[in-house]
UniProtKB/TrEMBL annotation:
Listed EC numbers: 2.1.1.-
Species of the source: Papilio xuthus (Asian swallowtail butterfly)
Full protein name: Protein-lysine N-methyltransferase LOC106114665
Domain Methyltransferase: residue ranges: 60-190
Any GO CC annotation of this UniProt entry: cytoplasm
Length: 215
């Protein structure tokens, strides 16, 4: 396990997200705007496209960790996925997601759930686990981020069904770092290509999307 840690940030606190989603609920109710897509729609679309083309059945159990406004799940529902669960530790995020999804996709389930502190056995096993930004937020926690990262990894591994897939997108960790973090509990399946940028003679990726499979 890599011992490198990120600088703590308010983005790693529940209070920050509670306030952010409270504002987004008001904005949605007033203007019908569901809010921003974390890392942008292009990044989300690449992952959604990969999921749709990876061969898993449309009735596979799918969970979105830190589902926010539910964007990923509503897009998967548009593609025919039917067994969808979004969890978030912010009640406000779940309230927003339910409001956004209720008319078109009432079958999407949302639940307040803390991936670090709650018992994942109550959720069951999943054929696909998706994370876009939640591991990042946990890694920015001002309160023992390393311990929380390790707990998160254990929890995800516990939820993965046999041959289940874990798709993670991060803007704070590189592909190599994600591989080091998760390789004890699961195997690398592939990397979802993301646009590269060049700065100061160095080439890199602003966002990393990596797919793991259960051991």
């Amino acid at each position: 396990m890599d011992d490198t840690e990120l600088e703590p940030s308010e983005l790693g606190t529940q209070d920050y997200w509670q306030k952010a989603y409270t504002k987004e609920i008001i904005n949605f109710e007033d203007h019908g705007d569901p809010g921003d897509v974390w890392f942008g729609e292009d990044s989300a679309y690449r992952v959604i496209k990969w999921i749709c083309q990876c061969g898993i059945p449309l009735d596979s159990s799918v969970i979105d960790l830190g589902s926010g406004n539910g964007y990923t799940l509503t897009e998967l529902a548009r593609e025919g996925f039917s067994n969808l669960l979004g969890v978030d530790y912010c009640t406000e995020a779940i309230t927003l997601a339910e409001k956004v999804a209720q008319d078109q996709f009432p079958f999407i389930r949302f639940q307040v759930f803390d991936i670090i502190n709650d018992d994942v056995k109550t959720l069951g096993k999943f054929g696909l686990i998706h994370d876009k930004g939640t591991y990042d937020a946990i890694s920015l926690s001002p309160d023992d981020a390393k311990l929380k990262r390790h707990k998160y990894i254990d929890q995800v591994a516990e939820m993965l069904a046999e041959n289940g897939l874990f798709v993670i997108t991060s803007c704070n960790w590189t592909e190599d770092e994600l591989l080091r973090h998760f390789s004890e509990k699961m195997k690398l399946k592939c990397v979802i290509p993301t646009p590269q940028f060049s700065f100061g003679g160095k080439v890199g990726n602003m966002v990393s999307s990596v797919v793991f499979v259960s051991k």
